[in-house]
Structure formats: structure tokens, C-alpha cells
Specification:
disordered N terminus, binds zinc ion, 19 strands, 21% strand, six-stranded mixed beta sheet, seven-stranded mixed beta sheet, Alpha-Beta Plaits, Metallo-beta-lactamase, Chain A, 9 helices, globular, alpha+beta
Length: 324
């Protein structure tokens, strides 16, 4: 099952979504009253996955446990970001009252470069899938073969755009929750899928490469796969060494309320102590970016700042849980 109860407010959101789906289909497609007046709006089917809020924070906020338009776009940049969020929303819950004539232009922007200077060749795929509760998928272009990190929702348009960037040689799946349309992508791109054997389920039994043991494993010279059990038995992070970036899946993310790191402990399948041991492994790695499966990315000013954030998370979690 995907992380349908990922965020603090999600249980209520998902419960109310299901209740309203059963009782009032008309309400589901309707505009939430929490939206400000204007062209853009979020509907009742929002699952509060946070995607629109980190993609277009100037426009979308959480209001009463789900996303809403808090301010209509006031610039071309804000409008573009809001339309990118509209295309990425896993439940197609973002709408415009007037047809968006620029939507094709925005479709052509995906995958989105994250930082052409600091993270050359690293893209956000957009098109999040409800099957993975709106998890983020990334594309890394590399001379030895491109890598898709987790699975976006399959669309022909996105597949065409990814092929224009060279397709994908690998699809690395961080863990069992974020596999979404992996089979469709593998069929289209002929990529070799990779997942840890501890997270193989019926849906992923045909994955080409199953990691066993504790690693680490390598993809060429630039990528290292770090086994980080805790959230799931087979959670693995991808370390892209030249750009000092770690793709974390659901092992660790950024809190939506602060700059602190955050563990989705209430959804961890394994002991907290094991997940903290997996965090300690990250202290030894030279990286500055967290690229998570859900929520905001983090860029620290240097590796020491990254380490102190991890140490703080370990200390706070240990104290809160009474772990010796
Ligand atoms: Zn997960």
C-alpha cells in the first residue's frame, strides 16, 4: 500500500475523501470554499499530498486539512508554477475556471530542471501518481545511461519528453510504496528496474534487478545505493556523488512546518532504532542535498550543516522515544 497516511493531517483527509466519494460524487468535483476567488481552484478530492504546496508555494496552502488556492497567481512565473502543479496533482484536483491556453506549453517543460548550475542533469518528472500518494519522481541524465528515480504517473507526453532527453537505462525504485506505473515505464523505455529484495511484492516480482544484503551497491562510478531500512525493510537511498545529492525515498524528508528533517515514523514498518541506525549511515557520506520522495527539497550550505541536521534529528527522536 502506498503511503496514503503520510502526513499528519492525511488520515482525516483520506477518510473524508472516501466518504464523500461514496455519498456525493457531485461534491467531489466541486470547488472547495477555502479557495480564494479567481481562476485557479482546488476541488474536494484533494488528498493533501503536499505536492502543489512545494511546487507553487506562492499560490497553494493547506487550509482545513487539504490544499487550497490562498492567492491567485500575480505573475507569469506564479502562473507557470501553478499550472505545473495542476499537471502534477495526483488526483487532478487543481482546475482553472477558464481553459488554460498555455497548458501545452507547460506540458512541454517537463521534466523540470531542478538547478541547472548546482544539479546539472537532475530533473523533477512531475506527473505524480495517486498510487504512491503523490510521490516525487526524478530523472538523472548521465553519459553512462539515464536513471529514473521512482515512478511518475505514466503519460505519453511525459514519456516523449523523457525520450527526448535520452530515455532511461535504469529505473531505481527507492522502496515498495513509490513504484506506481513502473511496468508501463519499463515497457516504453526498456529500462532495467532496480529494487531491494526486501521490498519486492507481487507488483514488482518481475523487476529485473533485485538487490540482496546490505550493500552498498554501485551504478557505475558516480552512483552508490545505500541500504537504509526502517521505513521499509528494503528502503534504499541513491547517492549521486559528483553533485553531492541523496535521493531518499521515504527514509527521511523535510518537515513542512520547519527546516528540520522529518521521519515518517508512524508509517515505519521496522523499529525506530533501525531507522536511526540508517540515519547514522548518512553521516559518513559527502552530500549537501536531500531530494525526498515527498515534500520540499533541502540544500545545506555544506556537509557539516547536513551532518548537524541529522545529528539533531537523531537526538530529538532518541529522546522522544526513550531509545538508549
Ligand atoms: Zn513509503
Amino acid at each position: 500500500m502506498a503511503l496514503s497516511l503520510l502526513f499528519a493531517a492525511a488520515p482525516r483527509a483520506v477518510a473524508s475523501f472516501r466518504a464523500s466519494s461514496a455519498s456525493s460524487p457531485a461534491l467531489d468535483s466541486g470547488r472547495r470554499p477555502q479557495n480564494v476567488p479567481g481562476d485557479f481552484f482546488v476541488d474536494h478530492r484533494c488528498i493533501d499530498c503536499q505536492t502543489c504546496r512545494w511546487m507553487a508555494p506562492e499560490v497553494f496552502k493547506r487550509v482545513d486539512g487539504k490544499a487550497a488556492v490562498a492567492a491567485q497567481p500575480i505573475s507569469d512565473d506564479h502562473r507557470t508554477k501553478a499550472l505545473q502543479a495542476l499537471l502534477s496533482c495526483p488526483t487532478a484536483s487543481i482546475h482553472t475556471e477558464k481553459p488554460a491556453k498555455d497548458i501545452l506549453q507547460v506540458q512541454n517543460m517537463f521534466p523540470l530542471p531542478i538547478d541547472t548550475h548546482l544539479l546539472p542533469g537532475v530533473y523533477h518528472c512531475g506527473y505524480h501518481s495517486e498510487d504512491s500518494f503523490g510521490a516525487t519522481s526524478y530523472l538523472i541524465t548521465h553519459p553512462d545511461g539515464n536513471i529514473l528515480v521512482d515512478s511518475p504517473r505514466y503519460t505519453t507526453k511525459l514519456a516523449n519528453n523523457i525520450e527526448e532527453l535520452g530515455g532511461a537505462r535504469y529505473m531505481f525504485l527507492t522502496h515498495r510504496d513509490d513504484v506506481a506505473d513502473h511496468r508501463k515505464w519499463a515497457e516504453r523505455l526498456k529500462c532495467e528496474r532496480i529494487i531491494h529484495s526486501g521490498d519486492v511484492e507481487r507488483a514488482t516480482v518481475d523487476v529485473e534487478r533485485k538487490l540482496t544484503g546490505n550493500g552498498p551497491w554501485n551504478i557505475g562510478a558516480d552512483f552508490e545505493l545505500i541500504h537504509t531500512p526502517g521505513h521499509t525493510q528494503g528502503s534504499v537511498c541513491l547517492f549521486y556523488k559528483p553533485v553531492k545529492a541523496l535521493f531518499t525515498g521515504d527514509h527521511v524528508a523535510k518537515s513542512e512546518e520547519s527546516d528540520d528533517l522529518y521521519l515518517f515514523l508512524m508509517y515505519s514498518r521496522q523499529p525506530v532504532s533501525l531507522q536511526l541506525d540508517s540515519m547514522r549511515k548518512l553521516l559518513k557520506l559527502d552530500f549537501e542535498w536531500f531530494l525526498p520522495g515527498h515534500g520540499y527539497r533541502i540544500h545545506y550550505k555544506d556537509v557539516h550543516a547536513k551532518d548537524s541536521a541529522i545529528e539533531s534529528l537523531i537526538a530529538i527522536t532518541t529522546q522522544a522515544r526513550g531509545i538508549l
